[in-house]
Specification:
3 helices, Spore_coat_U/FanG, 5-stranded mixed beta sheet, Immunoglobulin-like, Spore coat U domain-containing protein, Spore_coat_component
Length: about 325
């Protein structure tokens, strides 16, 4: 009789929850340009930060229950090949409301996070996610950036419900796991290249060269690159002169490196290297501009074409 009474007290309504530490799912930010990394917070997440639970105990989570996660690392952020670091923050949910401080235990049982995740509300195992957001302002070189986080999980909660919602036992345990985070930074540039205007003149000989023109580039920190200018849309195949067009008429012109007479082109030595910049020569600075001077002129050894507005479009390309 006593045995039957014991069954009546324990079986009706009793549901057991169990948690364990499992292998994590890595976080990958993907490949991003250095400019995007520096100017905009990038977000990513993992659906599995190492805590897996089953059960149905939402009504029994009290102030005495906890699910602590303590994140530590030997690094201060994502470390790249040249020693640059990309800082980022971890969050307990998909907003910035609940940041995780490294080395400080964060309780996922507070603020309804465990409830919202449904970690204890399903017989199917569910895992705790963690969200990440990079810190704006990281001026870094291109390459693969990585960090391995150590996550120590510790929990203590009611793991079984009896008649009258009486707690029949507690799941108390802990464990450690690791979480890898990676982000690939790609080379990129911001380019400032004003249009060239020769003005107007009645005859070819009256056009004056355009001098003091500059192209400004702010390229990824540490990047060595070259800058090329295409031959335009109407270039002469023989002699390589660029041409502007108006109707069926042409006006030959060209663009030259610095203040000299060497044509600035798009192939081989006709390009300009980052080390050839007039201002800040060398590899890219990331946050600072490198300035390339040039001049342009209309060739005077051509017949004056009919009056009109002559136009051409030249493509500037940067090669890393």
């Amino acid at each position: 009789m006593k045995w039957m009474l014991w069954l009546a007290l324990w079986l009706p309504g009793s549901v057991w929850a169990l948690c364990s530490v499992v292998s994590t799912s890595p976080v990958a930010f993907g490949s991003l340009s250095s400019i995007a990394v520096r100017t905009t917070s990038q977000s990513s997440s993992t659906t599995n930060a190492g805590l897996s639970c089953t059960g149905s105990l939402l009504s029994l989570l009290t102030t005495n229950d906890h699910f602590y996660a303590t994140v530590t690392s030997t690094q201060a952020g994502l470390l790249g090949p040249t020693g640059d670091v990309i800082g980022y923050t971890l969050y307990a949910n998909n907003s910035t409301s609940y940041p995780l401080t490294r080395g400080v235990a964060f309780d996922f049982a507070r603020n309804g996070i465990i409830d919202a995740l449904g970690l204890l509300g399903s017989v199917v195992p569910k895992t705790a996610p963690i969200y990440l957001g990079t810190t704006i302002g990281s001026n870094v070189a291109a390459g693969i950036y990585t960090e391995t986080l150590s996550i120590a999980w510790s929990w203590n909660y009611c793991s079984g419900i009896g008649i009258g919602n009486v707690c029949l036992g507690r799941d108390i345990n802990s464990g450690n796991t690791t979480l890898t985070v990676n982000l690939t930074v790609a080379n990129d540039c911001t380019i400032t290249a004003p249009n060239i205007s020769f003005g107007s003149a009645p005859v070819i000989s009256a056009f004056t060269p355009v001098t003091g023109q500059t192209i400004n580039l702010a390229c990824t920190k540490g990047s060595a690159y070259t800058v090329g200018l295409s031959d335009g849309q109407q270039a002469v195949s023989v002699g390589g002169r660029r041409r502007m067009i108006s109707g069926g008429n042409y006006l030959a012109y060209d663009i030259f490196k610095s203040a000299g007479t060497t044509r600035w082109g798009s192939v081989g030595s006709a390009r300009r290297a980052s080390s050839d910049a007039e201002v800040n020569p060398g590899n890219g600075l990331g946050t600072g501009s490198q300035v390339f001077n040039y001049n342009a002129k209309i060739y005077t050894d051509q017949t004056t074409p009919p009056a009109g507005t002559y136009l051409d479009s030249v493509v500037l390309d940067v090669g890393f």
